[in-house]
Every structure is written in structure tokens, then in C-alpha cells.
Amino acid sequence: MVILQLPLQTNLSIPQKHSSKLPSSSSWFRRLFVSNSHYPISLSSPVNQSVAAIVFGDGSESRLYPLTKRRSEGAIPIAGNYRLIDGVISNCINSNINKIYAITQFNSTSLNSHLSRAYNGIGIGKEGFLQVIAAYQSPEHQAWFQGTADAMRRCLWVLEEYPVTEFLVLPGHHLYKMDYQKLIEAHRNSQADITIAALNYARDPDPGFGLLKVNLQNEVAEFSLITSVKSPRNLKDSCYSTYSSMGIYVVNREIMTKLLNKYFPEANDFGSEVIPGAVSAGMKVEAYSFEGYWEEMRNIGALYEANMECIKRRNMGYNFYDKDYPLYTLPRYLPPTIINDAVITDCAIADGCILNSCKIKGSIVGIGTRIGDRAVIEDSVIMGSDTFYLNGMDGKCINTAIGIGDGSCIRKAIIDKNARIGRNVMIMNKENVQESNREVNGYIISEGIVVILEGAVIPDGTIL
């Protein structure tokens, strides 16, 4: 095991508190980082011993509301059988990374329960673990986590328990497949302080993500955070290329500690404060080009399309059926789905469903879904149910069972878990409304997609 040791600068004193946005002209700061950017490290250290992954559920602001009303983004169901965070955790397992920390805070009950139940030893091995670190208060810190940088800073006493050489920082709500071992190898070969995984093209403006200006030596010369859809994107010239950051970072252990505690002690967010500050200060920051499918679930429409793509026969965006790169999740031990005289075309049906004489086309049907007689489901995502009770828990919904009632018709909709759709309900958005907030009535419309809230009750005969 090789522990990263950086040379100490005894002739420099660094202020304890300063702005996280240091100017590029800070020559003393730049010299400090450059002098620390070359260190002895074994390129052959196995990642299961030398790398720890840090996975974040999400932040407080979500563009997937109302699906995040009672859960974090990482806990959102996808493809009928999984949660979004399963893709990232599976990437770690398939990349032989078996030391995984999941840091959660906002609406984390569902996510914490899923992680602790789903990955209790599965695929991680005897020496591996997945440890959930929930937000906490302490005598030194009375407030909750203020962002990703603040969370890691306050959790360093846990993260540094094992003598790893690198930390792999990962958002927990993105959908993609990546062999992190190749990312780690590129990071070590370049002897970088930080490596940023990035798409080798500039995406459409997406607030919250960064654009990288990369030189011919694959070094990040500039990091520009997109603040709005009108943010400037043209960073190219003859000597540079523009990449889109994926929010995935490899950071050397000692560099991480110094960034959080010494150089940027007041920074709250890692991606928007610490990383740009490190680039401006002259650290050796490299870009790792990724060319595969990647979706960060930037809105309801992106989540809907990701679900729809999983039932495509050709040009499938994310392959949920890859036997060489399996997707892990919570084993539920449900009975097989029962289909009674139903017509089903181009669909994905999860376990534990009861489908009566209905018609389902181009849709995702999640676990434990019940669909009544003569119901029609088209181009929709039914997230399923957590219970098999037929009646409600209180008087106002006792006549509406969980699932889709007899004679109901649903087109281009997302039905969240445990929703109760009555008989002869029409969810079709005939007026082609693009945006509407009817949360008090149990639904919203986003980008023309009707979203029924978790546990909502839609009475018999309702037309949406």
C-alpha cells in the first residue's frame, strides 16, 4: 500500500481564511501547488485497496420535483426495478472499487434505507463496504451540511480511516456506465492532482455544470461554471478544446485534505468553488474524455426519456441488460407477474404485478403494479407500489385501490409510487399543456408530461 506523501513548504505561510475564488495571478499560491504536483505513487496499486468512492445523493435544489418531494434524486425509481443511485454504485462494484461512502442529507430516508438494504455485502467482498454517512450536527458544527465540500470536510475523519491514495467523487443521480479503473489509470499516468471526467464536446447550456478549456497536453486551463442557459459557451481557440464536466472527480488524498481544510476552508460546494479555485491557482488538473451515454437527469423530460430508451430495441441509450456489466439493486423476492388476457407491446414489466385484461404499449411498469380491466396505458412510466393492500389507510381513499382502476386511460405520464388511479380516469393532456402546477390535486404537468405525485388519489372519472 502506497500512501501519498506531499513535500512540505516550510517557507510559506498560508492564510487560514480566504476567498475560494483565488485570482490566477496568485503566484505564491501557484508555486505551492506546482511544487506539490509531482510525487511518487505506484501506478499498479489495485483500486480495491487504494481508492475510496464518495457518492452524493443530491442537493437541496432539485429539478425533478415533485418526484423529489419525499425522496432524494438518487432514490428515484427508474426502469421499473431500480433506483438512480444503483447505476453509480454498480459502476463502483464493476470497477473493483469496494470502499464506498454515501453522503446523504436531503430527503434521505428512502435512499438510506435502499442503500443499507441493497448493498449489505453484495459484490463488495469481505474487505469492502458501503457506508452511509447521514448529515449530522456536532458541538463544533451546529448546522447541517452546507454543500458537497462542507460535507466532505466534516466527514474527513471518517473518509481518512483507510490509507487510500485517491478519492473518487461521484454524483449519485446520473445514469451512465464507466470503468473507473481506466479513469484512475489515466489520473495516475498523468501524475495529476485532480482529474475531471468530461464529455469531449460542449453540451447545451445546463446551469450548475462546468465547461472545461483543455489544452493540447490535456490539462484544464479554465473552468467556467454555467449559471444560466444564456451563459457564454465559446471557449475554443486554435490551442484549446472545450469539454463538458460530468461532475466526476479523482482527487489525491493529501490534496483533498489540503483543499478542504487549508486552502478553501470556507468553501461549501466542491464543483462550483473548490475545483475552479484549484484550476485558477495552478494545480495540475487533467481532463478524462468520456464518449459513452451519460444523462444527469436535468429535468422531468430527461428522466422520462431515459425510461423510454430502456425499451428500445435498437440504439438503447443505457443498456439495463448487459450481462458483462450488471446493474445491482435491492433483491425483493417478489412473486412473478400475473397477466390475465392482456395485450402488451414494447414494454418492460417488473415483478409482482397483476395485469388484468388491459392494453399496455411502450411503457415501463414498476414492481407491484395492479392494472384493472379495460385500462389502456401508452408511452408512460408506472413506478409501482411498495404495498399490496387493496384498500386505503383512511376514509377518503378507501374506495380507491393502489394501482390503475378499471377503464382508465393513461398516455405520456409518470405515475409515482403508491398512487391510486380510480376507475375511468383519463390522463391524456388533451390540451397539450406544457407547464402546470396542480399539486393540490395530486399532479403537475412538466414539459407536456403529466406527473402524478407519490401516494396521490385521483378519483373515479377524473379527466386530466
* Mean pLDDT over the residues: 84
**Unreliable stretches, pLDDT < 50, 5 or more residues?**
1-41, 389-397
Strand content: 25-35%
What separation lies between the terminal Cα atoms? 61 Å
Q: Helix coverage percent of residues?
A: 10-25%
What structural keywords apply?
single chain, 464 residues, alpha/beta, 9 helices
Give a concise summary.
This protein is an alpha/beta fold. Helix content is 19%, strand content 25%. 44% of the residues are buried.
Walkthrough of the structure:
This protein is α/β, with parallel strands linked by helices. 19% of the residues lie in helices and 25% in strands. The strands form seven sheets. Strands 1, 4, 5, 6, 8, 9, 10, 11 and 12 form a nine-stranded mixed beta sheet that branches. Strand 4, helix 4 and strand 5 form a beta-alpha-beta unit. The radius of gyration is 24 Å and the shape is elongated. The N and C termini lie far apart (61 Å). The relative contact order is 0.12. The N terminus is likely disordered.
